[in-house]
Design brief:
By secondary structure, the chain is of the alpha+beta class. It has one domain (about 5-165): SMI1/KNR4-like. The chain is about 35% helix and about 15% strand. It has a 5-stranded antiparallel β-sheet. The protein is globular. Pfam families: SMI1_KNR4 (PF09346). This is Knr4/Smi1-like domain-containing protein. It comes from Deinococcus humi.
Length: about 170
């Protein structure tokens, strides 16, 4: 099995196990929480390969293998991962370009890398991105209110952190 696919298999299995635990879906009265009805097995949906390839062509490089595997498997509907944030649609960069422009205006010294792909935005003040550098699993970078930073040393670590938030 491809190592990047194995990472996504493991994290998806972890998320599905957490979502499938009945005790996590019951409130203090023993009645199901409203969130129990959000997840249904099979709700995951990926991005078709031609869409991923078109994104890479636009960026001028290959996405990190682990992020690429995530896109293919969970990129449209990632179960409960990244709940509260807006995943970007690789076919609709205009959906995040306005937020990106606002962020860059806050920090004119920061130079946006041409190979950067915004993976998610959060309430208009934060975005996360990866670089199409052909790596196996590169870092996840951020712009928060115009300030750059590193969210995680790898997309795998970023997913592991996000999976830990699921209850």
């Amino acid at each position: 099995m491809d190592p990047a696919e194995a990472v996504i298999d493991r994290i998806e299995a972890r998320v599905r196990r957490r979502l499938g635990e009945p005790s996590r879906h019951l409130g203090p009265t023993g009645q199901p929480k409203a969130s129990a009805f959000v997840f249904r097995r099979g709700d995951a949906q990926g991005v078709p390969e031609p869409v991923v390839q078109a994104l890479e062509t636009r960026l001028g490089g290959r996405l990190p293998a682990v992020y690429r595997a995530f896109l293919r498997r969970l990129g449209r509907r990632p179960l409960e991962l990244f709940r509260g944030s807006d995943l970007t649609d690789p076919e609709r960069p205009e959906e995040y370009e306005e937020i990106l422009a606002e962020m860059l205006a806050l920090n004119p010294e920061f130079v946006w890398p041409p190979s950067a792909h915004v993976i998610l935005t959060h309430q208009g003040y934060h975005l996360a991105y990866v670089l199409a550098d052909g790596s196996h699993d590169g870092p996840v970078w951020s712009l928060t209110e115009g300030q750059p930073g590193c969210l995680a040393d790898s997309f795998e670590a970023y997913l592991e952190t996000e999976a830990g938030y699921i209850s």
